[in-house]
Design a protein that fits this description.
- It is a single chain.
- The protein is built from 18 helices and 28 strands.
- It starts with 17 loop residues before the first helix and ends with a helix.
- It folds into four domains: 34-243, Rossmann fold; 253-335, Translation factors (Elongation Factor Tu (Ef-tu), domain 3, Beta Barrel), CATH 2.40.30.10; 342-446, Translation factors (Elongation Factor Tu (Ef-tu), domain 3, Beta Barrel), CATH 2.40.30.10; 462-641, P-loop containing nucleotide triphosphate hydrolases (Rossmann fold, 3-Layer(aba) Sandwich).
- A six-stranded mixed beta sheet has the order 2-3-1-4-5-6, with helices on both faces.
- Strand 18 and strand 19 (371-384) form a beta hairpin.
- Helix 12 packs across helix 18 (628-641) and helix 14 packs parallel to helix 15.
- The chain is an alpha+beta fold and 645 residues long.
Length: 645
């Protein structure tokens, strides 16, 4: 279908007119040679972001006949601009829920071009609950257009989006004071908002802010100068976006490529696939494979159509090496004389994107480049107050919070600070139970606190200690509600193991809280740390060759999984003492449930705090049906069947 406007509308493909075809070819060549600016529109809800993008698309004359017809129809059904008026916001609000509510939920990407530049614009949501979507759009943008409703001025969400923009390394920012038509094109209103915002932005390091008064609805100062605001002498929004420089930093930086896939179609070819994130490389160049640090020489660069003389930033290529070097997914191939850093601990900023809070000590998955590794926040240093930019003490991060923290991962990775490289400095955090993305982060710098620590090889090791004791070390991890009977069963199991001559150690939740964990309370954060410490102690005890019986409520699956991962396959047995809450309450030997129901014990598991039952434990014990002796016998039986006795 032909476009409504533009060069292609004059071409009749049926005639094959040579002049027209030549004109098309020339047009396409010009498009290839023009640079590309990626920018986002952001700001508070209903500030007019979608209308602004619709106006840019409409005035750039890149709409097709069917799009205009659909827009006219949808404007009559969903439009908010009045009878007979096109609602340009509907060009980008594609979801049914967006059209019905008149808001943006998802990130909508649109392409358009002028005679001077190509653009990809991301329309990001303004609602606070969709801040995570805004951060996603900002992660790939070169510039940001921040909209403010002239009637409302600078709002909390304006500040939140500005802070995220600054974290994402965007330094080209336009403050578009929109809906000037609704304040009578008043100059004083515009200047008051511009002055207030510049003062706030200066604290963020956003010293180059261009403020433009616009009306997205009427098009004033969007693509054409406004006759209604003769007092404004600056550029139009589009004129400014056409002129801002695009940072060529990625092309000029040292060579970097994260390995996404090892391609081995036959025994004669072994290539490493990925997208070049920075710099360029040619066959014969020396490269380093990180984090290991091995050196190699590039032999070939293979593209879609065959061998290439050079690989440049943005290209997806396959590299082959002259030497046989071990390279895996997640490794980084980098210029040998200008390597990125390697570390396993970082200082970083995190934007939290999940309903469930970020809890220090909890294990997440961190995806950095193409590598995915277990990670945890070891210290939450502060949360940022979006309005004042003050640093507030915090024990966790809630949805849309931004915080500074220290991170630890389970093996070293190649990285660069986010300010130098988005590709090797930006990461996401993934929930290990649901595989949902729960946070995005920006690495500030490496922590060197463990750089001088190395594992000491000991002659007497775990197998030697286990052999001296004549047993197979393992952990029996009893979990269940308070009053389920897990401590009673664990005690009976230990008595039987002692009778059989086995060497054991019992770690009971209440007992450990009298010593090692006496400083911890019962908040979610403290529960996570409680289990982390006990799991590490259990690991040390299995190194000594012992059979360790752990009896803890351990209410969260994530922490039980974290504990499991410390041990070799077959060494960790999760034993779920499955006793219904009502039976546990009837037993209530310590009177805890009664106090919890009376509000005297906050965060009590099963009452004020959830218990997440195991989904696939090694053993499930029916605490409502069988007596403790029978349950203990089942534990001994599974140990025999698994060769642990």
């Amino acid at each position: 279908m032909a476009p409504r406007y533009g060069i292609l509308s004059d071409i009749n493909p049926a005639t094959g007119d040579s002049d027209a075809l030549a004109e098309v070819e020339a047009y396409l060549r010009r498009q290839e040679e023009m640079d590309l600016l990626r920018f986002i529109t952001c700001g508070s809800v209903d500030d007019g972001k979608s209308t602004l993008i619709g106006r840019l698309l409409y005035d750039a004359k890149l709409l097709f006949e069917d799009q205009l017809a659909s827009l006219e129809k949808d404007s009559g059904k969903y439009g908010t601009t009045g009878a007979g008026q096109l609602d340009l916001a509907l060009l980008v609000d594609g979801l049914a829920a967006e059209r019905e509510q008149g808001i943006t939920i998802d990130v909508a990407y649109r392409f358009f071009a002028t005679d001077r530049r190509k653009f990809i614009v991301a329309d990001t949501p303004g609602h606070e609950q969709y801040t995570r979507n805004m951060a996603t759009g900002a992660s790939t943008a070169d510039a940001a257009v921040l909209l403010v409703d002239a009637r409302k001025g600078v709002l909390t969400q304006t500040r939140r989006h500005s802070y995220i923009v600054s974290l994402m390394g965007i330094r080209t920012l336009v403050l578009a004071v929109n809906k000037m038509d609704l304040v009578g094109w008043d100059r004083a209103t515009f200047e008051r908002i511009a002055d207030e915002y510049r003062a706030f932005a200066e604290h963020l390091g956003l010293v180059s802010v261009t403020c433009i008064p616009v009306s997205a609805l009427t098009g004033d100062n969007v693509t054409r100068r406004s006759e209604n605001m003769p007092w404004y002498a600056g550029p139009t929004l589009l004129g400014h976006l056409e002129s801002v420089p695009v940072d060529p930093g990625a092309a000029d930086a040292p060579f970097r490529m994260a390995v996404q896939w090892v391609n081995r179609p036959n025994q004669d070819f072994r290539g490493f696939c990925g997208t070049v994130s920075a710099g360029s490389a040619r066959p014969g160049d020396r490269v380093a494979i990180l984090p290991g640090g091995h050196l190699a020489t590039l032999a070939r660069i293979v593209g879609f159509d065959g061998d290439l003389p050079v690989a440049t930033a943005g290209q997806a290529v396959t590299l082959t090496l002259a030497e046989e070097v071990d390279v895996s997914r997640g490794d980084v191939i980098a210029a040998a004389d200008a390597r990125p850093e390697v570390a396993d601990q970082f200082a970083a900023h995190i934007v939290w994107m999940a309903e469930q809070p970020l809890l220090p000590g909890r294990s997440y998955l961190m995806r950095l480049g193409t590598a995915t590794v277990p990670a945890r926040v070891t210290e939450l240093k502060h949360r940022v107050n979006i309005n004042t930019l003050e640093h507030a003490a915090a024990k966790h991060l809630d949805l849309n919070d931004v915080g500074a923290c220290n991170l630890s991962i389970d093996r070293p990775l190649a990285f660069e600070p986010y300010a130098a490289s988005r590709a090797l400095g930006g990461f996401i955090l993934i929930d290990r139970q649901t595989n949902a993305t729960v946070g995005c982060g920006m690495i500030d710098f490496a922590l060197r606190r463990a750089a001088n620590i190395h594992r000491q090889a000991m002659k007497v090791d775990k197998p030697a200690r286990a052999a001296a004791l004549g047993q197979s070390p393992c952990v029996l991890w009893f979990t269940g509600l308070s009053g389920s009977g897990k401590s009673t069963v664990a005690d009976l199991v230990e008595q039987e193991l002692h009778r059989l001559g086995r060497h054991t150690m019992s770690l009971d939740g209440d007992n450990v809280r009298h010593g090692l964990n006496r400083d911890l309370g019962f908040t979610d954060e403290d529960r996570v740390e409680n289990i982390r410490r006990v799991a590490e102690v259990s690991k040390l005890m299995t190194e000594a060759g012992l059979i360790v019986l752990v009896s803890f409520i351990s209410p969260f699956r994530s922490e039980r999984e974290m504990a499991r991962e410390l041990f070799a396959d077959g060494e960790f047995l999760e034993i779920f003492v499955d006793t219904p809450l009502e039976i546990c309450e009837r037993r209530d030997a310590k009177g805890l449930y009664r106090k919890a129901r009376a509000g005297l014990i906050p965060n009590f598991t099963g009452i004020g705090s959830p218990y997440e039952p195991p989904e696939s434990p090694e053993l499930r014990l029916d605490g409502a049906r069988d007596d403790p002796e029978a349950l203990a016998a089942q534990v001994i039986d599974i140990m025999r069947r698994r060769g642990l006795l």
